[in-house]
Design a protein that fits this description.
Blueprint lengths: L13 H8 L3 H6 L5 H13 L3 H18 L3 H10 L4 E2 L14 E2 L2
Antiparallel strand pairs: 1-2
Helix pairs in contact: 1-3, 1-4
């Protein structure tokens, strides 16, 4: 008899992650004021990525997109808090998303 564990179903696709964060792009590249629809996307992503596997999946989507779009990582790491989302993020070009988990601020 073989026992098969159910696979976790990811709550979103990478395309959805990029779409949610696209309103943030100008801010993430140049700074300045954060558009309201940017914070809306950050909040939507935070609401979707509640489990460790989902947070790791989001990291795996964000990492290559951040490199591709040439974002400022310091601004990216400050964005959740600036949008009122209680996540601590340390995205960088060399982050290991398999070990990384978005953490709630304590």
């Amino acid at each position: 008899m073989m026992v098969v564990a159910p696979h976790a179903v990811q709550a979103f696709s990478c395309g959805q992650v990029v779409t949610m964060l696209m309103p943030c792009l100008n801010y993430l590249k140049k700074g300045g004021s954060i558009p309201a629809n940017c914070c809306g996307g950050v909040k939507d992503l935070a609401n979707l990525a509640k489990t460790r596997p989902d947070r790791q999946a989001a990291c795996k989507c964000i990492k290559p997109a951040a490199k591709s779009y040439g974002i400022n990582y310091d601004l990216a790491n400050k964005l959740p808090k600036a949008c009122g989302v209680n996540y601590k993020i340390n995205i960088s070009p060399d982050i290991d998303c398999n070990k990384y988990v978005l953490l709630y601020y304590s």
